[in-house]
Specification:
four-stranded antiparallel sheet; five-stranded mixed sheet
Length: 301
């Protein structure tokens, strides 16, 4: 396992060297140092902020100022060592006066982040603030609409929350950020605990639910595709998004069916309803049931 980590570290350093000498946008004109990011090449968890501040610009390292110290405390509170995660920003040079990066500046820097992610292969990406959320989830995504809830896209989990710098200015945001980090820890536990269909780790099932009585999906028909029903009223708010429920349903079915290694299942149709069978969004407090069709799509080899 050692050689891939070494190769990954070398690849990340090559990207970092390019970032340090980058002149793709005007932000380079006033920087002291560019800030490529830091962390191990095998980090399963990636944090993406907005841009360097004054201390980061001086040191060439991400999140070393007041916001960084808060991030360190938040990581400690959920028992995740900083040295096991990769931390970077959407733009790598400090915007004047710590203003929000312009869209053209984000666009110029984004390819570096895409390349870093192709090396890291993070299983969970935590987006800190609106700039990172728009850059990686889409310009139409509003932070307050997605924060604190897991999304599944492109074979990995995405989780958005407030930037620590915003929490330093607002007690209410600080409290919300702490709660979101507890949810992030729940997501991490579920990802690590349910990845093996043959053996879920102890306690992983209960992490999916807010209710102490978990409910598992039930196969109601096997004619062609599997038709599955799942009472989801007790699912924790972290996972009450369509993409998260679809991924968890897929993992439940793999576990229940003892699927062979390499078998890939896909949720091809999904609907969430209230107790009367009327369609409602998964995040709605009225949502009680999920109905889906699941089918094999071949080998994962």
């Amino acid at each position: 396992m050692a050689p891939p980590a070494v190769d990954g570290a070398e690849a990340l350093e090559r990207i970092a060297h390019e970032i340090r000498s980058c002149t793709r946008c005007p932000l380079h004109q006033q920087r002291t140092q560019a800030v490529p990011g830091e962390g191990p090449a095998d980090a399963p968890l990636l944090f993406v902020g907005e841009g360097p501040g004054a201390e980061e610009d001086q040191q060439g390292r991400p999140f070393v100022g007041a916001a960084g110290r808060l991030l360190d405390r938040l990581l400690t509170s959920i028992r995740i060592p900083r040295e096991r995660v990769f931390i970077t920003n959407t733009v790598r040079c400090r915007p004047p006066g710590n203003r929000e990066p312009h869209p053209d500046e984000v666009a110029a820097c984004l390819p570096y982040l895409v390349r870093q992610m192709s090396v890291l292969h993070p299983r969970v990406v935590c987006l800190l603030g609106a700039t990172a959320t728009r850059a990686l989830l889409g310009s139409d995504q509003k932070l307050n609409q997605v924060r604190g809830r897991a999304l599944r896209e492109g074979g990995r989990w995405w989780f958005a929350t407030y930037h620590p710098a915003a929490a330093l200015r607002s007690a209410s945001l600080a409290n919300a950020l702490q709660e979101d980090f507890r949810r992030l820890r729940r997501l991490v536990d579920v990802e690590w605990g349910t990845e093996d269909p043959a053996r879920w780790k102890p306690g992983a099932l209960h992490k999916i639910f807010a209710d102490p009585q978990p409910t598992e999906p039930v196969v109601v028909s096997e004619a062609g595709t599997l038709r599955v029903s799942w009472e989801v009223r007790g699912v924790h708010p972290t996972f009450r998004t369509e993409s998260a429920l679809a991924e968890l349903l897929r993992r439940f079915v793999l576990r229940q069916r003892r699927a062979e290694a390499g078998v890939v299942l896909e949720v091809v149709k999904l609907q969430t309803t209230d107790g009367s069978g009327r369609p409602v969004p998964p995040e709605s407090p009225d949502c009680t049931h999920l109905h889906a069709e699941v089918c094999p799509v071949g080998s994962g080899e």
